[in-house]
Design goal:
alpha/beta, 4-stranded antiparallel beta sheet, 9 helices
Length: 268
């Protein structure tokens, strides 16, 4: 049964020696939603995620995931969550399929091969499944990493800056994957520095600054915090990302047409 709040944080504090990273964080994440935790470098985003995923202990406050207290029953929490860090945790020596089979065996699932094949298909990696992960592109590696984190069907997934270092096309691939997860009922807490990423993905956006959540709301609610914009005529110019994706699409389309012509000629 899904809980009203999948994550509930109250007054969480964390210091490292004399550096106060979290100064009383309050946050609620509803089940089946995507919440983006925005903040600059050093704001405490990763520290909060590490506390929620049982890798760190808070100095004060409470954190509850799926109705379970993180500090008191960390083992139970780990059974219902998954964490994807800033760098893909795949084994480059293994193939994509072997990475998935390994995790399925570690989670003691029946028929790990079938689990791996289902996830390869789900993340459009079937054709690359028998290739070593070292040969994967950045987007493919990140999709494989997220697929590995889904083994065991965790109710809550923590994504800590999942698109760091990816090119625009790979970022969009990851965005589509995250949207798919939420559409299937998974709760996602996403940390990011990218405003466009939060706009694209999040049901709600929480802004972490100097160890506290200073604003929390939907995109439209946050926009209403600023004065209404004055209407002016501005000619919209395409962004570099627009140009890049258009060129990639045009090149792929031209190559596809060329391949089709070649194939027809060979059949004659």
């Amino acid at each position: 049964m899904r809980l009203e709040a999948a994550i509930r944080v109250q007054g969480v504090e964390k210091s490292f020696q004399d550096v106060h990273v979290l100064r009383g964080v309050d946050l609620v994440v509803a089940a089946g939603t995507i919440v983006a935790l925005l903040g600059s470098n050093g704001a405490g985003k990763t520290t909060l995620v590490r506390i929620l995923s049982t890798l760190l202990k808070a100095d004060a406050g409470t954190a509850v995931v799926n109705g379970v207290d993180v500090a008191a029953r960390s083992g139970d929490v780990r059974e219902s969550i998954s964490l994807t860090g800033q760098f893909a945790a795949v084994d480059d020596v293994l193939t994509g399929r072997e990475n998935l089979v390994l995790v399925a065996r570690l989670r003691h699932l029946k028929n790990p091969g079938a689990v791996a094949d289902e996830l390869l298909a789900r993340f459009s990696l079937t054709e690359a499944g028998n290739r070593r992960a070292a040969t994967y592109s950045g987007g493919m590696r990140r999709r494989l990493d997220i697929a590995m984190s889904l083994i065991g069907s965790p109710a809550v997934i923590f994504l800590d800056e999942p698109t760091t270092g990816l090119d625009p096309q790979a970022r969009i691939e990851v965005w589509q994957t995250v949207k798919q997860l939420a559409g299937e009922g998974t709760t996602v807490l996403l940390t990011t520095q990218y405003l466009d990423e939060a706009e694209q993905l999040a049901d709600r956006i929480a802004i972490l600054h100097e160890g506290r959540i200073i604003q929390n709301g939907t995109l439209s609610e946050l926009k209403r915090l600023l004065p209404a914009a004055e209407a002016e005529y501005v000619e919209k110019q395409p962004s570099l990302e627009d140009v890049f994706l258009a060129l990639i699409g045009a090149r792929d389309g031209a190559k596809g047409a060329e391949d089709a012509v070649t194939a027809r000629e060979e059949l004659r």
